[in-house]
Structures are given as C-alpha cells and as structure tokens.
Amino acid sequence: MSEEEQQSQDGDKPDLPQDQSQTDYQARAEDDENTPDVTYANIPADPSMDQPETDHQARVNDVRNTLNAKNAGIPDRAYPGVCSFLYAHRSCLAAGIAVLLSLGLAPLTFSNKEEISQLSTTIKSAQGHINQLTNAVDALKRDQDNMRQLSTTVDAFKRDLDNERTRTAALEQRLHEIGKEGYTLWRGICYKAFNSRKNFNGAAAACREDGGTLAMPRDAETNAFLVSLYNSVHSDRAFWIGLHDQREEGRFEWVDGSALGPYNSWGMGEPNDSGDGEDCVSYSEVESTENMWNDFDCNGLINFICQTAPVSCPLGYWKWRGTCYSVVNDKKSFSNATTTCRKDGGTLFMPKDAETNAILISLAGKQSHWIGLHDQREEGHFEWLDGSALGAFNSWDRDSNEPDNIRNQDCVRWKVAKWHDRACNELKRFICQVVPKQT
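-> structure tokens emitted (439 positions)
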C-alpha cells in the first residue's frame, strides 16, 4: 500500500491517541530490525538471495503494521514486549515444549510399557491357572459321572443283596419251622446228634419224646451225612443208630420194623455178636473200624442220633421249643379269642414255665393279652385250657395283689410277663399256640 493510500485511509479515520506501550512496542521492533544477526554475520551474502530477502522483509513489515493497527488499543503495562517476544520466537518455543513433553513422558511411557509387560505376564499366568482349573473341573465332572454310575451300580447291588437276604431269611425261617431246635434238615428229614450217653432203649425213648426215632441211614449218602454230623459233636465216641437184631439173632431190622435192605456199612469183621450179647448197632469208636457200623451190647451207655419228620407252623406263627405261637392284635373277649385259636388247631397261649412266659415279651411288647388260664369252673382253682391244673410255676403280679377276683374276674391276661385276673368279657389282644404239623 502506498503512502498516499495509507494517508487517505488514515484521513478517513479519527485520530486515536497513541499510548506509551504502543510507542515502546514500535521502538523495540525497529531495534530488532537494526540488530545484526550474529548467526549469519560471517556468512558472505549471496546476491541471488537479495531479492527474496527484500520480499520477505516487506511481508514482515506488512504483518507488523497490521498487528500494530489491530493491537493499538491493547494495554501492555504489566509485561511490555512479551507478546512481541513470544511471537518472534514461537518456533523455538514450540520445539522446546515438544522436547520437554518428550522428556517428561519418556519415563512414563517406559513405566507403562513395563507395567503392561508385567500385566501381560500375569494374565498369561492367570490364563494358565484357568486352563488348569478348567481341566480339573472337567476331570471332576467325569469323576462325578463315574460316581453316579457307580452309585447306580451299588444301588442295584444293594437291592440284589436285600433280595438275597430276604430270600435267605425266608429259607432260614422255613428250616426253623420244619426242623426242631438243634436238628439239621437232610433230604426231607431232620437229624440231631445228642452228646449224652444212654443205653439203646433209653436213647430210643429220648428220640420218641422228641417226636422221632433213632436215626436210620438206609443209603450211603445219608450214612455219610450222619458221620459228619456226629463228628461235629464228638468225633471219638460211639453213637447209637436205629438198627438191631434183638428179636432174631442175625436178622437185623430198623426200629420202625422194616428189614435191613441191600445197603450196609459194617466194619471189617462186623457184625460178630461178640460174647453172644451184641444185638444193637452203633457207629464204631475203634480206630480200625472208625465211622463204620458195629454190633454192640444194647446196655452200653453211648451217645445217639435221632431223626424226626419235618414240621411246619401255620402262616403267621413263630416256632419256639417245638410249639408255634402267634400274637393277634384284634381285641376279643376270652371266649371269642379261644374260638379263634381253635380254628388254627390250637389254644390260647399256655406259659407253663418261666422261659416260655418270658420269651414272648419280644413279641407282645407292653400290651396286655389273654392267655389260656382261668378259674371259671371253680373260684380260685385256676386251670389251663387243655384241662391241666396250674402247676408250681406262676407269674402273678404280687405287687398288685393278683389274683384279686374284683367284680368276678375269672380269666387271666398276660402283660410284660405278669399275670392279672380280669373279667372274661373284656376285649383284649391274645396269643395263640399250636403244635407244628409234620410235612
């Protein structure tokens, strides 16, 4: 812009007062122009660069004039010349700030990298642990599945075992029912070896009292069974069997009257009727003829073996000492209870000894039950339902002054092994007993 145009424009504007700060600013700018540049003072001038320098100087002057015009009214009283200085050295300031920022952030960047590296290592380690835990969980799941399968198998085995136990218990109960106490069932017959000494007739009588006879081994298998049976009781003693020739010498017969068949188990040289008095037969205790048959003096005292037919109790009965018992929980009068027991072929319970009286505690508990004892025919004269008189044994509750015959009490109840007389028309539970039947 020419001076005339500048003056023309200036003439169009009102004169503005120039403050001291504006004058100082212009003076400093002029000083900067006149100050030689020490950086390039010794470098010879390049004629080719004169023209661009002139143009550059002109542009700087134009910018300065423009800034002076725009900032003419801005006060700079506090820090004179600061704006000019900052503007003139803006490139250096920017570079310095960048360097400072780089220097300040460098440790932070290094620290972050180190922390990131540590975190990465930690994450990898955690991932490894997670993988291990995942594998462990999978293994536990497999073990759990296996345990479920094993549990199912064990449950099946338990059911099978329970069924087998039930079956075994039923078989044992069946054996208990069909055989007398101490007897062993073999091929449908019950046998027992007695460890007590009797002569032949005494042994035969003892077997009859037990509901049987002396043992009659009619075949080799039964004979071998009896040998093992008596050896389990006493292996070095002789045992009577049910064979003799008392009616005719040399003609042996069984105690049931049947003749000795084709089977026999005589020892060497037997029978020999030594001394013309050996008419009964036993298993020999002599070493040379041990476990073989031997004719022996019928008056000799030796052990013996009995046999009896198997017996069974009616359904719902329990056998003890050769008698079957049943506890009935339906309450009835004495007369009706007696009728119910007779339908099963028995009577009301008749505990004639202390052992029988006490054995039913486990069955009857603490409830009161009718037993087969009464004095209906004669007051004070108690008798059993089979017609036999009350013997030496009784179990009256003496603490309650029983029997007291209050209000015509002629029938007897059993409660926890104690007896009380009661009115016969009272309704009570009852116990039946029957003789087991041979099968």
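The radius of gyration is 65 Å.
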